[in-house]
Amino acid sequence: MKTFLAKKETVQPKWHLIDAEGLVLGRLAVKAANLIRGRHKASYTPSVDTGDFVVVINAEKVVLTGKKEEQNKYMFFSGYVGGESYKTMQQMRDKNPAFIIEHAVKGMLPKNRIARHMLTKLRVFAGPNHTHEAQNPVKTSV
Question: Does 80 fall in a domain?
Fold first, then answer.
């Protein structure tokens, strides 16, 4: 019996919809990362992008446990001397709530070329509306 290895041409991606309202950020990110990688499929192959598309709505209503809301900071660097800037979780939630989920999911993917391509299959929306109704995403529980 031979081991089955998926090929890029044979993969049939599906669309999943996750409602982030009231969900813990880490648990949501793990579920999204596994769906994007294709870990839930029997045909999972680490060297091939076998994952599905994930649409996350209500990103602004995601929950953090403990004191992470006050203590977590995001660091940005402009490339110039002294160009470090920090933003708190609350500032990021006000300015760009989708970034919080994208950043968490990106950290849970492998650090390689395939993962950078996989990250394009994550679509995050701050509110309850999204632009992918035509793809008929299946509501997935976390």
Answer: no
Domain of 118, in residue numbers: 12-64+95-139
Contact 92, 100 (CB under 8 A): yes
What is the DSSP secondary-structure string of 56-96? EE-GGG-B--TTHHHH-EEEEE-SSTT-EEEEEHHHHHHH-
In a domain, 7, yes or no: no
Report field, pTM of the whole predicted structure over 0.85 = yes
Q: What CATH number did the domain enclosing 121 receive? A: 3.90.1180.10
The answer to whether 50 touches 88, Cβ cutoff 8 Å, is no
Residues 56-101: tens digit of each pLDDT: 999 999 999 999 999 999 999 999 999 999 999 999 999 999 999 9
